[in-house]
Every structure is written in C-alpha cells, then in structure tokens.
C-alpha cells in the first residue's frame, strides 16, 4: 500500500480556489460513532472548516442514522446501525458544527 501511495503522490494534491456564494463544503458522517475510524483525518477536517469559515464559505454537515433498527442488517456499514436516539448519532463536538 505504501508504494502505491508514493506512486500517486503527484496526483494526490488539488489546488482549488473556492468562491464564496458559489460553493459549499459538504462534511459527511463525521459523527461520534465514527470518531475512532476518522481520527486520522480529523485534523485535516478541522483545517478545512477553519479555512472555509474564514472565507465565509457555507458548510453543510450530514449524518446518517436509523429511526427504526428492527429488521435491518446489523452488519451494515461500520459494523452496526446507528440509532438516532443515541449520542453516537451526533456530529463530533470537536468540529464545532454549530459555530
């Protein structure tokens, strides 16, 4: 895997010039449930959020959960379902998603 990442390194950087009012940052499923899995990228997400906020770029957070988990396959996604009634359903506090 490491060799592959080195091979594509030159293609792995994108320069973007987002324009206020013409774009938004979409943050998908950065919920408490995925904190352990997402921990390697949280710092980068925080940097993106800070940059977008400083440029007044709109930020949209999404989250995924289930109101009724009965009858659904527990092996869906990361290993189990995320009921909307539990704390794991909410966006990670560290992202300051209300800010």
TrEMBL record:
Residues 23-67 form the Isochorismatase-like domain. It comes from the Bacteria. InterPro entries: Isochorismatase-like_dom, Isochorismatase-like_sf. This is Isochorismatase family protein. It comes from Syntrophus gentianae.
